[in-house]
Amino acid sequence: MNYDMNMIKYRKNGFFRIASAILIICFTLFGLTACTGTTDSKDNNDDNALMQGTWEIDTGSGAGYKFVEDKFMWLKSIEDINDNYWYGDVEYYNGAEAMEMAGLTDDELQSSLSGLKPENIFVTKLDPEKIITDGEDKTATNMNDQTLWTRLWLIEENEDNVVAVVFDLETFSMESYTKVE
């Protein structure tokens, strides 16, 4: 009888070991499968990470853009984000898609902008929703429903800074910016 009790204990311990191993494997697989469909917000913005932050215009006026995820601000002064700004949604297009939107071909990129990588080419579509001037909301008087700014950004990264030449794709005017944060 003692032998039978030991055999039962042995089988019971063996069963629990196997069951524990199976449960660990199942939970591990469940955890991995549950995580594969999710990404954190940084992963979603990796393609646009170069655009994120504050860009100051090189004219010395202190004006510039601020990009935070899918929002933008055009600031009269990048030092004052509480007054004198346009605010709204932004859509980013990068690489081949941006080149196509801007009408740039691979040949033009290689011949005219040979040092520029496609991943450093962006098109932004800015849709301003709000205008604040001298502390007052001027949205109703200064903006119509058709306001949409489309900009081509050619960004160069070097040891000292990140700079961009920005073309307004409606007026073809050009400005230079430096990323300050």
Descriptive keywords:
globular; 5 helices; alpha+beta; 8-stranded antiparallel barrel
Task: Summarize this structure briefly.
By secondary structure, the chain is of the alpha+beta class.
Overview of this protein structure:
The protein has helices spanning 2-36, 41-44, 96-102, 106-112, 139-142, and strands spanning 53-57, 64-68, 71-75, 85-94, 121-133, 136-137, 149-157, 162-168, 174-179. The chain is of the alpha+beta class. It folds into two domains: 1-38; 42-179, no CATH class. Strand 5 and strand 6 (136-137) form a beta hairpin. The longest helix is centred in the first third of the chain and has 35 residues, at 2-36. It is globular. 19% of the residues are buried. Residues 1-34 form the signal peptide.
Structure annotation, total helices: 5
The total count of strands amounts to 9
Number of domain units: 2
Overall shape: it is globular
Task: Kindly estimate the percentage of residues that lie in beta strands according to DSSP.
Answer: 25-35%
Largest sheet: number of strands, sense, barrel closure? 8 strands, antiparallel, barrel
Structural class: alpha+beta
* CA radius of gyration: 28 Å
Distance between the termini: 78 Å
* Helical percentage: 25-40%
Order of strands across the main sheet? 1-2-3-4-5-7-8-9
Whole-number mean pLDDT: 80
Regions with pLDDT < 50 over 5+ consecutive residues?
Answer: 7-12, 15-44
Q: Strand-and-helix sequence, N→C? A: HHEEEEHHEEHEEE
